Amino acid sequence: MRVLKPWLLVSVVVGGVGCLVAESGGTASPCTADSDCPSTHRCVAMSAEASVCELVYPPPVSSAGDGGTPDAGPVPTWCTDVQPLMNRNCVSSCHGEVTSGSGKTGFRLDRYATAGAVAGAKDMAERIKVRGVEQRSMPPSGPYFTAAEQTVLLRWIAAGAPECAAPTDGGTP
Prior knowledge:
By secondary structure, this protein is mostly helical. It has helices at residues 6-20, 78-95, 125-134, 147-158, and strands spanning 41-45, 51-55.
């Protein structure tokens, strides 16, 4: 009988276990089909009666839009297009001056720019993309951004998260 080298046995065991470990990426949500889960998750049966959304690793590349097609119209800006979405969906009691709904004081989505140690929406653009568009986990109780709103957000982020449109009349925005 041949004896396996200890390092080989450990490698096989650790490698095998690594393939079985699932990362939930937060609280697992109940589901009945993949469509009930964010795009980064799949519906996985935990028992005969229950299934939950589990994180897929690596997460799939977003196909929510390229955000940069030339015929898509003017680039969305914070002042005109994005700030109203943030105010309606994110600011009320979670990510504005009052943070009682989230307890997150390190960023505010009622501001464009970072002030002091508190990040603004421009610096949180990628997080907005992931949580609001790709995962659809914000706001936690909905309503989520519509498909049209998601397109606006993706185009804004792809364009570098511009603040306001350049004035056309020589005045200030």
